[in-house]
Amino acid sequence: MDKYNLNEKSKIRSVFKIAGPITLGVGVILLIIAMVDFFGVFNGNGGFPTLFFLGFIGIPLIGIGAAMTQFAYMGKIARYTAGQMAPVAKDVTNYMLDGTKDSISGIVSSVANEIKAPSATPSKCPSCGETTNPGAVFCDHCGRPLFKVCPECNTKNNPDARFCQKCGKPMGIY
Ligand SMILES: [Zn+2]
Ligand SMILES: [Zn+2]
Fold this sequence. Notes:
Number of helices: 3
Strand content: under 5%
Strand order of the largest sheet: 1-2
Largest sheet: 2 strands, antiparallel
Helix content: 55-70%
Shape: elongated
Bound molecules: zinc ion
Oligomer: single chain
Radius of gyration: 33 Å
Number of strands: 4
């Protein structure tokens, strides 16, 4: 299946390699004809620029031809530069994200830290009074939960809280 797709793609590429420049060339010629006609009319004899419509065919043809040429030849370049990095799409994504990656991961890790370890400092278990480890969810002495997370706003509440201290919503069973 993959091989078939690859063959199909390279077949399309080889067609584009010829058709692309031809389309591009035809587009340019049509555009030139249209321009010459247009300015010829302007400079001289009056009347309508009868061949001007060719420009409206030529411009899209240039675009299509350029795209086809780019597809045919850029594929080769991209594959060459990508080298052994197999999924090119992933590579491109990584490249695009490269600038923002650090800031995003910074935000993500700080959010994750806030959820995982709301209190960085050691605190006392509300059930048994033992000192708990920072980031602990359950007391390592009595096994009781050290806090309850609000299902509405994710705020940390006391384990026996019935309503969220921040948003006032019922805390549910957990
Ligand atoms: Zn405890
Ligand atoms: Zn809440």
